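Re: beginner question about structure tokens

> Can someone show what the tokenized structure looks like for a real chain? I only ever see the sequence side.

Sure, here's an example I had lying around. Input first:
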Amino acid sequence: NELDNVLHYLLRVFPITLPHLDRRFCDAWCDAGLTGEPPLPQLSFGNWVGGDRDGHPGVTAEVTRATLRALRMAALDVLKQAMEQAAQSLTLSRRLQEVPAELLDAVHELAAESAEVGVSEGADHDDEPWAAYCRLWAQRLAAEKVALKAGGSGGLRVEDLGEGLQILERSLHAIRAERISRRVVLPVRRLLEVFGLHLARTDIRQNSAFHETALLQVLTAGSRTEAEKWSQLDLMERAEVLRHLLSQPALSPNRELLGPEARTVIDCLRVVAAHVRRHGPHGIGSLIVSMTRHHVDLLTVYLLAREAGLAEGEGCDWWLPIPVVPLFETIDDLAIAPQILHAYLSETVVQRSLSKQSRTFRPRQEVMIGYSDSNKDGGFLASQWHLRRAQRGLSDIALQHGVDIVFFHGRGGTMSRGAGPADRFLDGLPAGTVHGMMRLTEQGETIAQKYANQGTATFELEQLQAGVVEAFLRRDAKDGAEAGLISVVDALVDRSHRAWRSLLQTPGFLDYWAQATPIDALEQARIGSRPPRRTGKRSVEDLRAIPWVFSWTQSRHMLTGWYGIGSALQMLQEDQPGVMDQLRDAARHWPFWRGCLMNAETSLLTSDPEIMRQYAQLVVDRGIRELIYETIIHERDRTQALLADLLGGDAASRRPRLMRALLLRGAPLQSLHRRQVELLAQWRSARDDGYEARAGRILPELLLSINAIASGMRTTG
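And the corresponding structure tokens:
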């Protein structure tokens, strides 16, 4: 169960990591000679599970409702336990301490409120009021959980508990027990700040095409003529139609008249609306629109959300309490992302919503950028460069509109999908694109690798916090190395992109991929929650990024992490020989460029020509096999030589830990790969010859080999 896995970390790892993380920050603050109360870094957690329905028909409105309820109940458990522990520490007696009147009043008031919701106030609160107050809060949190289980709510708000903790702190300060307050109450307050009463914010994600279909069904059910004309309108005309509709009363069509897509979207957003009305917006992250192609895709969500009752405010002054967030994924979409954001931020309803949502003096707009589909679309180098350029352009547009932009980095578990050491990733971000906040994803096996226990979780979170602070502090810095190389990298990216697309469009490439990787076996595996293909078509575009990368990883091609770089560098070297000196110098002084080269080299060194050849032997057509395999090997040799030239020295001296890890894993993995190739041949033969029973007997061991190789390589995709 995916939710159970997420809850493990949110309940058993991060709450015990937080105090340790804060203590280390406070120690560093003091070591640096800084005075005053340390400003503890902001930290919060998000969650996809139960909210991401992009291509996942199993995530229904009821699943989302159950997920939000489970997360809230888990948060109540965390805080109840913390208040019980605080009660055990705050055994100060009124016989020895003068009790502030504010605390006594709060104890009696909370006892009375608790009695109203069926909580016993306890008999010993008179002698130890601080402990009694904590126990009453623990009981109040338990009562809220009981109400949730029964399908209701005790009406507890995060602000109520926050005020209660402030009363505790003030009362301890009043008797000069500041150290006790810091040691006992501050950790509870931090838990509330970080986890709230929701534990993690659940993001709601859906595809723009699905939203468009839902919109047309809503218009049709509402007897609007716009539905009939929609396909004939250009994008600007569609924006004008939506603008007009958003200025009019809601359509409110009968649910029974809605098509399936409209019912799916509206039902989900009604769950969100009900949660916001009952508990506030804290437990909901953002309404993320995948494959955003135009700001019409975002305005569509505004209309659908209003139809679901999510809007607040009266008449024409209505607004959405939950942010609508574009997700730019392909190379083409990243290129026009700034124009899309400009049009979006120019809309009145958007400006009003951002202003109302903001808890700071400046509105914030979140933008998600995808590292996976951009890589599948354009190859590694093109993906990295277009992501960087998009961030710069989007930041400039947000600045023009007086909005702080918050980037949500949709990183995957491999180098080709944006993974890699956190410090290298944060170092390589463009200056001026981090405004004190950022979001990023951690997926799959990387969660266990990074956050398995308090020690590793503290290290990873500390790296992220430090990196974000550093990126914010150098927001005004100018990168001289980059300024002189923009045209050079543009040329490199164009050539690497063309090399990548040329490979994908080579006749027979799809057959090579289908037979020289275990993609067909992966599609039989119960790995991840979403179907491997978006619509079921047999194409690279239709396949999701994870199985695409996973299949090349299993066959040790690691294609998505390096292909195209060698061809691009070689062509540039032939056309402009002198520019290689600039690129060598940039590899030492420009963090982004060095990070790209290091990550590409990691992927390339992890690939293995001999193992690749074994998988290539599975390709039935000899002509296709030799053409594609030789093309890949030649590109690998080119890339390896030119990366070594730019980075300097041999890989063994530059990357001793990586080379040692590869050496230690080499022999066991070779045996596993050989066995997987044998099993693939046997399984495919039985399947294709109609021996389903035999194929069924082979499949479990084949899937086990996939798991074993993924464990040995410590990555899936």
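Each token stands for a local structural state, so reading them left to right follows the chain. The chain has three domains: 59-195, 201-442, 487-517+555-654.
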